[in-house]
Amino acid sequence: MSATMVMTTVREEPRVTGSVTGPAGTTAGLSDPDVARAFADGAEEALEEAYRRWSGLVFTVAMRTLGNRTDAEDVVQQVFVAAWQSRQKYEPSSGSLAGWLMGITRYKTADLHAARAKVVRAQDAVERVTPDPTEPTPAEPVVNKVLIADELARLGQPQRRILELAFYEDLTHAQIASVLRLPLGTVKSHIKRSLDKLRLRLEVDGVAL
Amino acid sequence: MSHCDPETLALRSLGERVGTPDVDAHLATCQECQDQLASLGTLVGIARTRGPVEMQQPSAAVWARIHDELGLTTAVTNRSDTASTATPAPHLEQDVAPVVSLQERRDRRARPSTWLLAAAGIGGIVVGGVVTAAVVGTDAQESLTVASSVDLAPLPAWDAQGTAELAVNAQGQQMLVVALDADAAASADGFQEVWLIDENVEGMVSLGILEGSDGQFVIPDGVDVAAFPIVDISLEPFDGDPTHSGDSIARGQIEA
């Protein structure tokens, strides 16, 4: 739990020259575990805050899995409605609320997949083709990948930019230091600390690897 | 040898061939370092597979539908601005000028509702050794533990005196408490903005707008004050340009 607190104490983004961040909510100063406990206790404000913090995660995972905006928004609605209605089953001490929402998201996207497969099977039956209803949904890697993107977005600068260059542009730390005109040691320590943050986020909210 | 340097392992997980032959020799025999490298490598692999993900937000109507379906009370807004904007999409380059008032965010944060205070377990608790500083511009009071203080000295052409204090608030957030007496405070030509700047005066982070002569600013979690030790108050014209105007009123350097 202490690890969770470390991760979630501050959710405000630094505004580095030229970049933009969205407005934080009225409850922005609250830690994720605080929101989770209030949610479990049935505070509607906590549901609203949970939606504010994690609907983007749920939606992005659903979009990546289903590829359709209407379906993905249906999943978001189903996930938050189901989460609220079954909040007695959520135990804050046994895991993060974001992780629990991710679990529900996987069920709901899998349900939609299954519903689609049924339609496909019906068509296949007509065509005498053997269906494969067991085609796995890619939700597990998607969840972790989206969590990484979300945590990257929260890193602040120059940490975010440093990791983007390392991940997606394949630059070495020396090249990054040169491009961003930062000391080598600064880049190295940012890389190390940011990777630790991402890993911790996956441990707290992600699907076990 | 002792365990591998964590920064070396981090770079190796990204595929860089760094470190002396000692590192390879140690890695060959140390399960702990192998596990470290493997878990970081897994993380990097997930991040790199099929490129970056752009975070997306559902439309505002979705929250309204949830609000309706669950029959939530009117105490919880069903307005569209509830739709999450707390997670901005990652952008490799800057896009547009900011329109979000940081002061407004701070003001809203300074007045958590009572259930939040109860949930956080922080209502009314004052830790020993804590000083209480008035929050200018709000009706709230916040307990701050001051870690260090630095004098702000005027730059040429300015007549200004002030202090900046590095502090920690009751939620554990790092704060910068600024007090500045400057004739720019009443200027109609612009506004005062508070920055943290690195020692090369190249990289900088805006903490927000200083209204009047006193203000408190949350230092975001990812910002290392040791890397941005210079406190700088600038006069910014109303030109919509989010970058530093180059017109600094006063500065001081925080000692790490």
Question: Can you characterise this structure?
Answer:
The complex is a heterodimer of chains A (about 210) and B (about 260). With about 210 residues, chain A is an all-alpha fold. Chain A has helices at about 1-10, 30-40, 45-65, 70-85, 95-125, 140-155, 160-170, 175-180, 185-205, and one strand at about 15. In chain A, helix 3 (about 45-65) packs antiparallel against helix 4, helix 3 runs parallel beside helix 5 (about 95-125) and helix 6 crosses helix 9. Chain B has 6 helices and 9 strands. Helix content of chain B is about 25%, strand content about 30%. At the A-B interface, strand 1, helix 2, helix 3, helix 4 and helix 6 of A face helix 1, helix 3, helix 4, helix 5 and helix 6 of B.
Could you name the key traits of this structure?
heterodimer, A: 209 residues, mainly alpha, 9 helices, globular, disordered N terminus, B: 256 residues, alpha+beta, 9-stranded antiparallel β-sheet, 28% strand
Layout of helices and strands, plus pairs?
The complex is a heterodimer of chains A (209) and B (256).
Chain A lengths: L1 H7 L6 E2 L15 H9 L3 H23 L2 H17 L11 H31 L11 H16 L4 H10 L4 H8 L3 H22 L4
Helix pairs in contact in A: 2-3, 3-4, 3-5, 3-6, 4-5, 6-9, 7-9, 8-9
Chain B lengths: L5 H8 L7 H9 L1 H18 L12 H10 L31 H8 L4 H7 L10 E4 L6 E14 L5 E10 L4 E9 L7 E8 L6 E7 L3 E5 L11 E8 L10 E6 L3
Antiparallel strand pairs in B: 1-2, 2-3, 2-9, 3-4, 4-7, 5-6, 5-8, 8-9
Helix pairs in contact in B: 1-3
